[in-house]
Design brief:
Layout (H helix, E strand, L loop, with lengths): L11 H9 L8 H14 L4 H14 L5 H4 L4 H8 L8 H19 L4 H8 L5 E2 L10 H12 L7 H10 L3 E2 L11
Parallel strand pairs: 1-2
């Protein structure tokens, strides 16, 4: 019998996400940014909702290309607010556009997003103890502050920690999960 983290449950989509994506170290800056934006949309909701809407998010946010999203204007916001396929939160949509601009501003001054976040983590996944899974850590608090200082929104320490887990910066698979350390 395969042992998984309990949150994967019995939903085939959640299990596939757990088995194939969650906790896999992501080093691509654009992909890291996309996943952070999706975690921001998830705030107050379950991840399964976001996962089911992810393809629509990708379509409507033009593949989460920060250079494209940064040019979104009020007409784009209204278009997104009317589309039932995504989470229609004006604050989260506006934050995503602003976060694209913050991402590009980092790049303009020579700060690579991947190098920035992985550098804060020491360059390698931080392996949890396999028993206790925190909702935030001192590192997620530091990273949240650093992102906010650069103009990011919807990047509180709890959102940032959930994202760190999703992109493999933190390895919080439980002790008997078949994905732990890998």
């Amino acid at each position: 019998m395969i042992h998984r983290c309990p949150w994967a449950g019995n939903d085939p989509m959640m299990r596939a996400y757990h088995d194939e994506e969650w906790g896999v170290p992501e080093r691509d800056s654009r992909a890291l940014w996309e996943k952070l934006m999706l975690d921001g949309f998830q705030a107050g909701l379950s991840w399964s909702i976001i996962l089911r809407k992810r393809d629509a998010f990708r379509e409507l946010f033009q593949g989460f290309d920060p250079a494209v999203v940064a040019r979104f204007d009020e007409a784009d916001i209204e278009r997104l607010m009317l589309d039932l396929r995504i989470i229609r939160s004006r604050a989260k949509i506006v934050a995503t556009i602003g976060n694209a601009r913050a991402y590009l501003a980092m790049r303009e001054v020579g700060e690579d997003f991947s190098e920035f976040v992985w550098g804060m983590a020491g360059g390698e996944p931080i392996v949890g103890d396999g028993a206790h899974v925190p909702v935030k850590t001192p590192l997620s608090e530091d990273m949240s502050r650093a992102l906010k200082k650069r103009g990011f929104k919807f990047v509180g320490p709890v959102i940032v920690y959930a994202w760190m887990q999703a992109v493999g910066i933190a390895d919080d698979h439980i002790a008997d999960c078949f994905r732990r350390h890998g």
